[in-house]
Amino acid sequence: MEFYDFKSEEKPTAAKEWIKQQGRQLKSSQFWLRRFPVISWLQSYSWVSAFYDVVAGVTVGLVELPKCLAAAIIAGLPPQYGLYSSVAGYFVYAIFGTCQAINFAPTLLVAMLMRSYTDQYGHDAVVLITFLSGVIVMLIALLQLAPIVEFISYPVQRGFMSAAVFNIVLTQIVAMVGITGPSLNVIQTVQNIINGIDLFNVWDLVMGVTCIVILFSIEQLGELAEKSKKKGGEVRWWHTFLKYFALTRNVLVMVGSIAFVAIMIATTGESPVGTPAEIEQGFPPFRLPHFQLQNGNTTLTFGETLNELSSALIVVPMILLLEYISVSKAFADGKTIDTTQESLALGLSNTLGSLMQSIPVSASFVRAAVNVASGVRSPISSIYTGAIMLVVLGVLTDYLTYIPTSTLSAVIITSLIYFFKVPQVTRDCYRSNRRDLIPLYASFLAGLFINLTFSIVCGILVDLVFIIYPTARPKLIIKSIKLPDIGHALLVVPDKNICYPNIEFLKERIIISAELVKLDVIVIDGSFIHVLDTTSIQTLKALRKDFESKGKKTLYVNWRNSVRDQFVNFDRKNADLFVSSAELGDSCDLESAKNSVSDFEYIY
């Protein structure tokens, strides 16, 4: 084995120099082009691109309209809040976005996270969470910390997402028969069923099941058209018709349901199915969120408000970033995504959206897929989607009060059912690394029986245990060797960095081993040690003093210069105890001693 000796190391950039670099970037035109990508898009924009963007934007608007209404209902808010949330994200992304397939609007998973705060504090809490989450995401972008979402492993992501899907679908099945109520987990949903069994409405069930059958049937027609096109190689008019017919199936079912309700009211005087309460027409008020929430008759201070929302302010920004990064990776088309710019756009969409009473927004696989299928050419298509939402808010909200709640439930169920991935991920983990089944089911079961916020936290904590344990219990080789001119030595070789989680383990093993053999010196090999912390330095120095009091010497062999400097700078002592293999002398072949047979050798 060869030991790499760091004679000189590159020093980190000083803070003053980093600030100067940032200042120079601000004067660069390339910097502003990166921060306002719409300028680059417009420079090469054409009428052909505009045509495809209009088609894609209008299609996404029609597809997403029912889902935006459904997202608000899942969050426990009136349906118009879903429309409010669909304005800022589309227009902001058109200016600051870099990926043509992506735009920002409400997502059903994040809407589910908002339900508990709506039930306790009303819509003010959700709007405030949106504002603060946007600020946090922008700070993460500016500090270039977006990779923190990589701490959420694939099994934890899928466990959380599947728990959310299960909860949402179960809640919507219950709502489909006319039973409503707060539902943060499966237990509450079952309680709602028991308490609301008298509210069972057969018409709601028939309408919901009919819509599900129609939605799945139209989707199958679209898939058959796509298979036929691939098989034949020639694009016929009916291929294009069925493609857009399938893409807009949600709005088609919604329009059909509205027509049914309107006819029933005109002929019988009432709707046989449940419909939303009156939806406010017009644009949302433009104002700052309330920073002091109302809990019953008590007004919380801003500090108390932050304390009440603390878990949401940790989890929601992480989920928003996770959704966006997952979608951007899937639809990057081989291009590099500017994570900082995209995170800024995401944060800005939420912060500005909160001024218009928005719930949290992020990217969505469904929206991105519809964009790509519609031939989108640039993020400018989001403007046309935003325009659709503005038109609905301005003149069509009266008609939305005729949408059966069971129809919206059907739209939600058919949109989310494919995201339940526990069986597939269980199979993958079983075949590759069965240990991953533990965080998968920890996050899934926590989401089912506690709440979704705890689900993601529980999964991360379980994963961290598996990550930290090898650090706390490193592989440790301890053996007794004979070094000429030095005497009997106890050689200690840790296979990774020494740090506060493992230093006591290392100390105990050295002390126990030293009592079992004859020795004159402790030799600690630092070939695999790259950094020390204060706790480990202090413990190593205390251990050295303990052995010195017993007449035993301690040597640190093959330690990097940077690590040696950390150790010595602690109290400006012991520099003479650091030596290389060569400095032990030609007669002391440490490598041969490592590989030699020893009467005492332990591998921990």
Structural features, described:
The chain is of the alpha/beta class and 604 residues long. Helices cover 61% and strands 6% of the residues. The chain has two domains: 34-290 and 300-432, no CATH class; 473-603, Transcription Regulator spoIIAA (2-Layer Sandwich), CATH 3.30.750. It has helices at 15-26, 29-35, 38-43, 47-74, 80-84, 88-96, 108-121, 123-142, 154-175, 186-195, 202-232, 237-247, 249-268, 302-308, 310-330, 339-354, 365-373, 381-400, 405-416, 422-432, 437-449, 452-472, 503-514, 534-549, 561-569, 590-595, and strands spanning 105-106, 294-295, 298-299, 361-362, 476-483, 487-494, 521-525, 553-557, 578-579, 601-603. The strands form three sheets. It has a six-stranded mixed beta sheet. Strands 1-4 form a two-stranded antiparallel sheet. Strand 8, helix 25 and strand 9 (578-579) form a beta-alpha-beta unit. It is elongated and about 105 Å long. The model is unreliable at 1-12 (pLDDT under 50).
